[in-house]
Specification:
By secondary structure, the chain is an alpha+beta fold. It folds into eight domains: 51 residues, no CATH class; 108 residues, PAS domain (Beta-Lactamase); 110 residues, PAS domain (Beta-Lactamase, 2-Layer Sandwich), CATH 3.30.450; 102 residues, 2-Layer Sandwich (Beta-Lactamase); 95 residues, Beta-Lactamase, CATH 3.30.450; 119 residues, PAS domain (Beta-Lactamase), CATH 3.30.450; 168 residues, Heat Shock Protein 90 (2-Layer Sandwich); 121 residues, Response regulator (Rossmann fold). The chain is built from 40 helices and 42 strands. The strands form nine sheets. It has a five-stranded antiparallel β-sheet, with helices on both faces. Strands 7-6-10-9-8 form a five-stranded antiparallel β-sheet, sandwiched between helices. The protein has a five-stranded antiparallel β-sheet with strand order 12-11-15-14-13. The radius of gyration is 50 Å and the shape is extended. 22% of the residues are buried.
């Protein structure tokens, strides 16, 4: 619309202002030219013409002012419009900068920030104020700063642009950034500012690096596995080999003609017809070509080659090409031949082995239960152990030969005969007086084989060693000194239990630290130098002391003595040491020094002049006052002088010396006698002097001690007493002064604060008013007898506050004697230690729970190893048995029981807090039914177990082991509430959203459906006051030692973790019911999950001849793993520890395709072994297993390293699936 108006005002095609100016000029000229003439013509009079000239001038001014106003308004309107458009443009630019994800900055020519976009601040985790005015180079990785500065230098040259990639420290760590920079030039063409736009390209960089790494891994894997790759093209009859193929066939590339005939010539003539037939059949049938044959190298040696290929055809069936791989299987063939020879040797070894062997026939009752075992076969070693000739043994039953045989032997044999599960067992055989280690297994149905050895001598020695170790460990654990061992880097390898008390950290926490982590910074240099000398081989020059930082914040003095630990070659491999807490000694030394200093201060500060002489009456020392009276500046100047050398006269010197000799000769003190003294200024002062003989430890007089007081200075002593009283009144510890009868004569303000009693209420009375009744009368009798005997008493007492509350104090009571040695007062100091005592009890309870957790973790590990053997061998049996038979069903039951036992171990591990949470979709009815047998055994025969379960109960998503823990704790709580018996009722039901809100759902949970699990007992019930505290940690109504108070708090925590809550309903005498509410889970989710799980177990994955290194220290599990993997088609080699595994790897030129290793090994761990082998083959797949569950940190560490982990016990199918997946993933890289 504005454009239309302007067009109307442009008749001449000129701007609007130009038109107005032209019109104004024309009108002005016309006015000037014609106005005067018109006036002269129209107005005759001169006066009238003058008047009209005035009006004409005014009119001209008005027109000029109007035109000027109109023009200026037009100009300023355009300026304002331009300003608005500029502001709008700047706002759009600002919004564009703030909204985009790219990083935008503006820097000056010195690389200092002038502008940073919000995205830049957010990306680097800094504010705009922190960045502006500072250079960006400190944010750039030091390796990239040179390239960055070089790129920036290019901006100062035409075309004034630059592109760079750099790493920068952001809030998420080091990230790759790509920058496109452009310069802003000033009027002289110099670079004034630089605009940079950056983008995060970390993922792109990582993808590029991952691609390069994958390519390199594929090349290394092919090279390490010594696998040759070949391709044959049918249209051109061309055979293509890689370099490995030439090495496999021992053929020179120059002699190879790139055709099938060249290949045929390398094959042994006896194998060629078969190979050609199989190759032709693969081409005709379109299936894979898989065969093995022999080739002859040019040196005449014969090698076995395994070939695997795939035929590619057109749509009409015409073959196009064949692609395949070859590898040398000669070592495998040689290994099989050696295995046959080994089996022949094994039979000879069996007949001559020192270990006993018996083969029994199982005799069963009518109920098909094993009741006795008849000896069928026995080797010489067993005959020797039985101490009977073979004729008396073969054909006779075990109970017949040994009527008094212990029942545990028959139970073990019967269990193995019934279940078919091998058992390793060691126990005493009383009839032979021996300790036998046995391995019992079923060689075939109806028979039982027993391998045993005499471990009597070993058991006796082990018992002696165990007792000795227990004694040594008890000594180590009960000592108050820290006994530790560190490696050469200062990392702790071992510490005893005393370290917990002296440092405040647990043993596990200390083992993760370095020695310097605990040492106070001011002692780092001296300790580092001492340890450096020890590690370099120099002997330590005595003990030395330093301070460590206690976890609570205070410092502890330790005295350290170290000793080197050397290996068999004499090389230092560790440093062990003993650190003793000398804090008390140091405090005592400091107190002694402080006491000496304080005593010196007192001696120097008191008005009395003090001096002491030897037997020759030569001065040995004095205080400052005496030195000043003697005209000396310091007491040391007096040493070695006599009275004749002093300022007083000869007569006075003779008088003083005569008195000194009299005291030393009589051996009696001379107290408070008056004598004159001449001062250096000539004045005379009268002194009140006392002298006593000085005696040594044997009682011999060795000198004289004298003190005199200027009687005029007594006022100064009174002032000193006032200052001392003020110090006592301001003490933070309560202080009480009593007379000899215990009547309170003085209390300081701290006593009033501590007890709540005012000073006036206490004075004149006794401290019986603060007695709590917690200590017996005998306790107070012993206290009074101690202090009345003249000794000090120290101890801990529980007192009562004025308001009735109890508090604990550390108290010290000391008698005060008069000059005659009679007790005239008692002084007591009292310090409140209530909070410290409570903290000590709490820490003791936590340490007990940590010990239970560690014990549970260890038991679970050993139990999982046993379960691993059960699951593994049962899996092998299932593969060999026909499905549907009774034997197959029995083995299935064995495997089910083993898996159930595995769940029990996970419950145990809950005590150690090391298991990661593994949620799955569960039905609580199944959980209750699965625990029914356990509950029956747990609660005993006098308690009836009743369950009322909702048939259509909704599932929940939860950790199965934690739900088992909830059930276990609730069952135990119900059992303990019914010591005389009763009924334990468990019920489940679905709860609607409305009902959950009415039941007290947690915030936000009332909009969902829940299920309710109720555990009810018929015990004595719970008081209302107790119900308020039942879920608090460490709260228990049981006697000390009968409960930790953690059971219901654990239930509360687990249920809250799963999004639910717990309620309790009870009345005294009517039992109690604990209601657990958990959010329900969509049923279609569990059905889909079950279908996925079923599909994943549809087929057993087979091996393809890959080589696997199995490392397991348990011989039974090692043999089991080898057997399972070999049966699946893998080439397996086993080792019992890390050293054997490394030897096996080094003895195998092509290494292994996969490492399957237990984490816990003797010596070095499986994780360390895997790290060593990864250095030899970076693409090596690593599968780790353990009876311990991984915590979250260990699980993340394994995942980061590319390791996979299986928790024992693991069945055969999951193991084979994991192995197959890892090998397939490795081959596809």
């Amino acid at each position: 619309m504005n454009s239309k108006k302007h067009s109307l005002l442009k008749p001449f095609g000129q701007p609007f202002e130009s038109v107005i100016t032209i019109v104004y000029i024309v009108l002005a000229l016309a006015w000037i030219v014609f106005s005067d003439r018109a006036l002269e013509a129209l107005i005759p009079g001169a006066e009238e013409q003058a008047m009209w000239q005035t009006w004409k001038g005014g009119f001209y001014v008005l027109m000029t002012a109007g035109l000027l106003y109109f023009s200026l308004k037009r100009i300023f309107d355009r300026v304002r419009q331009a300003q608005r458009e500029l502001a709008s443009s700047e706002e759009r630019y600002r919004m564009l900068i703030e909204c985009q994800t790219d990083l935008v900055v503006k820097v000056d020519s010195g690389n200092r920030f002038l502008f940073v976009s919000p995205s830049y601040c957010k990306f680097f985790g800094k504010t705009e104020e922190e960045l502006l005015g500072h250079t960006f180079l400190p944010l750039v990785h030091e390796d990239d700063r040179g390239a960055t500065e070089e790129a920036i230098s290019k901006i100062f040259q035409p075309p004034h642009t630059a592109y760079m990639e750099q790493r920068a420290m952001t809030r998420d760590g080091w990230r790759w950034l790509a920058w496109q920079d452009s310069a802003i030039l000033d009027e002289q063409g110099h670079v004034a500012e630089i605009i940079g736009v950056g983008r995060d390209v970390t993922e792109q960089k990582q993808a590029e690096q991952a691609f390069d790494l994958s390519s390199e891994r594929l090349r290394l894997a092919t090279q390490a596995a010594q696998v040759g790759i070949w391709e044959y093209e049918f249209p051109t009859d061309r055979l293509i080999w890689d370099e490995q193929m030439f090495r496999l066939y021992g053929v020179d590339r120059e002699q190879f003609k790139d055709c099938l005939d060249s290949w045929r010539k390398t094959i042994l003539p006896e194998d060629l017809p078969r190979v050609e037939t199989e190759f032709g059949g693969a081409i005709e049938g379109g299936h894979s070509f898989d065969t093995a044959f022999r080739v002859v190298w040019k040196d005449g040696s014969i090698h076995y080659i395994r070939a695997l290929a795939t035929v590619e055809k057109k749509s009409d069936g015409e073959p196009v090409r064949v692609v395949g791989t070859n590898w040398d299987v000669t070592p495998h063939r040689e290994m099989l031949a050696a295995l046959l020879e080994s089996e022949q040797d094994y039979r000879s070894l069996f007949e001559n082995m020192t270990t006993g062997f018996m083969l029994f026939e199982v005799l069963r009752s009518r109920a098909n239960v094993p009741e006795d075992f008849r000896i069928v076969q026995i080797n010489p070693a067993a005959v020797e152990l039985a101490e009977r000739p073979p004729a008396e043994l073969v054909g006779r039953c075990l109970k017949e030969l040994y009527p008094d045989i212990e029942s545990h032997w028959i139970d073990v044999f019967s269990k193995v005969a019934m279940t078919g599960t091998p058992s390793a067992y060691e126990n005493r055989f009383a009839s032979l007086g021996r300790v036998l280690e046995t391995w019992v297994f079923v060689p075939k149905p109806g028979q039982l084989a027993v391998v045993f050895s005499d471990n009597t001598a070993r058991r006796t020695a082990e018992d002696a060693v165990f007792r000795t170790q227990q004694q040594l460990q008890m000594i180590v654990n009960n000592t108050h000194d820290i006994i530790f061992q560190i490696d050469l880097q200062g990392n702790y390898i071992y510490v005893n239990d005393a370290a917990k008390e002296l440092t405040g950290y647990s043993v596990d926490q200390i083992l993760s630290m370095n020695m310097m982590d605990l040492i106070c910074p001011e002692f780092h240099a001296v300790v580092h130098e001492r340890m450096k000398r020890r590690i370099s081989g120099d002997p330590e020059d005595g003990h030395f002391a330093f301070q460590i930082q206690h976890r609570a914040g205070h410092c502890v003095w330790l005295e350290l003595a170290t000793k080197g630990v050397y290996d068999v070659q004499g090389n230092l491999e560790a440093v062990q040491g003993v650190a003793r807490d000398i804090t008390t000694r140091k405090d005592a030394e400091c107190e002694l020094e402080e006491s000496r200093r304080f005593l010196r201060i007192i001696i120097d500060a008191i008005p009395a002049r003090v001096f002491w002489k030897d037997l020759e009456l030569v001065y040995v020392g004095c205080n400052l006052s005496f030195a000043a009276d003697s005209g000396l500046t310091h007491p040391e100047e007096l040493v070695g002088k006599t009275d004749y050398d002093m300022s007083w006269g000869a007569s006075e010197a003779e008088l003083y010396r005569a008195n000194d000799r009299e005291v030393m000769e009589s051996g009696e003190p001379c107290i408070c006698y008056e004598e004159p003294q001449r001062r250096p200024d000539g004045s005379i002062s009268w002194l009140s002097t006392s002298k006593v003989p000085i005696r040594n430890a044997d009682g011999d007089i060795i000198g004289v001690l004298g003190a005199y007081e200027d009687i005029s200075a007594r006022k100064e002593l009174e002032e000193e007493r006032v200052r001392l009283t003020a110090a006592i009144n301001q003490s933070a510890e309560a202080m009480v002064v009593m007379d000899a009868r215990g009547i309170v004569q003085y209390v300081n303000p701290a006593f009033e604060t501590l007890t709540g009693y005012a000073k006036e209420a206490v004075l004149g009375g006794t401290l019986a008013m603060i007695k709590s009744g917690e200590q017996s009368d005998q306790f107070y009798d012993n206290l009074w007898s101690t202090i009345q005997s003249g000794e000090s008493w120290r101890g801990r007492i529980v007192n009562k506050h004025k308001d009735g509350s109890l508090y604990t104090v550390d108290s010290a009571i000391s008698p005060v004697h008069d000059s005659a040695g009679k007790i005239v007062n008692y002084v007591a100091t009292i310090r409140d230690v209530t909070q410290e005592e409570e903290m000590e009890r709490h820490m003791l309870q936590i340490q007990k729970m940590e010990a239970v957790g560690r014990l549970a973790g260890g038991v679970a590990h050993d139990f999982n190893n046993i379960l691993q053997a059960i699951l593994g061998f049962s899996g092998i049996l299932l593969m060999e048995l026909e499905k549907g038979t009774s034997q197959y069903d029995d083995v299935v039951e064995i495997r089910t029981a083993a898996r159930r036992a595995g769940e029990l171990t996970r419950q145990l591990l809950a005590f150690s807090s090391k298991r990661k949470v593994e949620r799955s979709v569960l039905n609580l009815n199944d959980m209750v039914n699965g625990n029914e047998k356990m509950v029956t055994r747990l609660v005993g025969a006098n308690i009836q177990f009743v369950s009322e379960l909702e048939p259509e109960l909704l599932p929940v998503e939860a950790d199965a082991s934690q739900i088992d823990q909830v059930l276990l704790n609730l069952f135990i709580n119900a059992r303990d509430a019914m010591p005389a018996g009763g009924t334990l009722q468990v019920s489940t039901r679905n709860v609607s959203a409305e009902e959950s809100r009415a039941a007290g759902a947690v915030n936000g949970a009332g909009e969902h459906r829940f299920i309710c699990l109720s555990v009810k007992d018929t015990g004595s019930g719970i008081d209302v006051d107790v119900q308020k505290h039942v879920f608090e940690p460490f709260f228990t109504t049981k006697q000390v030692g009968q409960g930790t108070g953690l059971g219901l708090s654990v239930v509360y925590g687990i249920v809250q973790l799963h999004g639910g809550w717990v309620a309790v309903e009870s009345r005294p005498g009517e039992g109690a019911a604990f209601l657990v509410y958990l959010p329900a889970y969509d049923r279609c989710g569990i059905d889909a999950k079950q279908e996925t799980v079923a599909a994943s177990y549809a087929a057993t994955p087979e091996g393809r001849g890959e080589s696997i290194l199995v490392v397991e220290d348990d011989p039974v599990l090692r043999d089991l793993n080898v057997r399972m993997l070999r049966n699946a088609g893998y080439v397996v080699e086993a080792a019992s520890n890390a050293d054997q595994a490394l030897d096996a790897w080094n003895n195998r030129s092509d290494g292994f395709d996969l490492l399957f290793c237990d984490i816990v090994l003797p010596g070095r761990s499986g994780e360390d072994l895997a790290g060593d082998l990864i250095l030899k083959n970076k693409a090596l797949p690593v599968l780790l297993c353990s009876g311990h569950s991984l915590d979250a940190e260990a699980f993340k560490s394994f995942k980061k390293k590319g390791f996979r982990f299986l928790e024992k016990p693991v069945a055969i199918l999951p193991l084979l699936q994991a192995v197959r997946e890892m090998l397939d993933e490795s081959s596809s890289v």
